[in-house]
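Sequence in, structure out.
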Amino acid sequence: MTWRTLLLASLLAGCTMAGKVKGRVVQGPPVALQTSTGEMVPLVLKGPLLEALAHTEGHWVDVSGRYNGSKLKVEEWYPVQGAHGMSAWMGTLQPGPNLLDFRTGALYRVVFDDPSMEAWVGSVVLVEGRQDNPEQIHVVHGQVLVHGSEL
């Protein structure tokens, strides 16, 4: 059997296949990723952090999950590049000296252009900017993805 035959058989049987896609977030319905080749991959988002992906239009992200037919049910996603063309990071903003805690366990000190962003402590945020040194990110743009009370 070829891989195409196996793929068709698994789709007809209702099985899902693991998948990983990199693309630019496009509003729907449904929300989709547009890959570098122009292919549109429709996404299924369930849960606060996954649903937050729908509010990141224009960002380039890596998404992993399981295909169910032509749709990808998202299990995990990470930003790669922001909508403004800068590097992007996602994490929980910690109190104190404004530390951004990434799901990988890395901690970065963050410096905000807009001081009102400091009110985001305890929330999962998506930020864009530049890395000034190995331990510090200068944030130019950002948004709250999930408020601390919703985690």
